[in-house]
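re: ur question from the group chat, yeah i did fold both. here u go
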Amino acid sequence: QLRLVESGGGLVQPGGSLRLSCAASGFTLDDYVIGWFRQAPGKEREGVACISSSGRSTNYIDSVNGRFTITRDDAKNTVYLQMNKLKPEDTAVYYCGAAAGSMWFTSECGRPNEYNSWGQGTQVTVSS
């Protein structure tokens, strides 16, 4: 059974950093695309960053490009999202999702309904 568990959220001041973790169980990362999505109150869930099943390709939404980095550790079966230079508009619940490994996206990270499994989310709040 596929399971994803996010952690690492919290309260941080503007300009600060956080690293989110997405621990996977029941499958190996090289069989799935992993995407980080976020959802702010009253807004739709949007893809922030994703990494291909091979681990060789990554995509980012324009608003985080150059500030966020997605990586994965196959030995730990975990995907990370390093978030630097955080802004108040980055405040949201962050989720990781798994999509079929045969998929990839020409830009950004596709739609939420293209992902099969989701974690419970972790809250990120950027505020002074």
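okk and heres the other one u asked abt
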Amino acid sequence: QVQLVESGGGLVQPGGSLRLSCTASGIIFSINAAGWYRQAPGKQRELVAVITRSGITNYADSVKGRFTISRDNAKRLVSLQMNSLKPEDTAVYYCNIGSWGQGTQVTVSS
């Protein structure tokens, strides 16, 4: 079955950076689009960034210019580089490649 494992979350000060990773198994990784979503307390899950199998990317307006999604098909890996983090970026971040990962907590606070 599909298994997605996220890592890289943590506590960071405003203005800092984090890099999230999602490794996949049980799927033909290279033919799937991949996305990162986030869910803050009391809010709905929202799309953060998506990358197609050909590498075309799209971002939520709130993260454009700060976040970068990338993929390595050989390693079955999707990453999210997050720079200039803000307190409003605090959320549980989920990877989606046809299925959901367990999520990784990102907290931006001084």
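fwiw on the second one: Residues 48 and 60 are 5 Å apart (CA to CA). The chain has a mean pLDDT of 94. idk if thats what u expected
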